[in-house]
Specification:
mainly alpha; 5 helices; 81% helix; elongated
Length: 135
């Protein structure tokens, strides 16, 4: 056990750097494992099926353009709620490394581009961090 007089700025830096690097390494490995296992594609098809079922169950008769818009809005609502819940338990960096590869196939399936999807995810996580910090 180190005493306060034995702790240097260099040792604090090395400890923090090691912990942050370990968190990012674990998140990267987990995201790679999810991607190799085709989990993003399975989640995308399942989520879109559920959203299609919900949209088609609405009593109002919608034309194809309105159906596509309703599906897109429903998917984005589900993704926002999911990001809120995930963001409450994980830090922003590892969350981005895990969530972006999983959510990109879903966002592409509803017609959202890669850059726009990644930017929206980053903003949601940043908003969560600001709300936790009180700013």
């Amino acid at each position: 056990m180190k005493y306060a007089s034995e702790i240097s700025l260099k040792s604090v830096y090395e400890t923090l750097y090691g912990e942050i690097k370990d968190a990012f390494d674990c998140a990267s490995l987990f995201a790679w494992t999810l991607t190799i296992g085709k989990l993003p594609q399975v989640l995308a098809s399942g989520l879109l099926e559920v959203c299609d079922t919900i949209v088609r169950a609405w009593p109002a008769q919608l034309d194809p353009a309105e159906l596509a818009l309703a599906r897109r809005v429903l998917v984005l609502m589900i993704l926002n709620i999911t990001l809120l819940v995930v963001g409450m338990f994980m830090d922003a960096g590892p969350t981005l490394l895990i969530v972006v590869p999983v959510l990109l196939p879903i966002s592409q399936a509803i017609g959202m581009g890669r850059g726009l999807a990644a930017e929206k995810i980053r903003r949601r996580i940043k908003m969560r961090l600001l709300s936790l910090q009180g700013g």
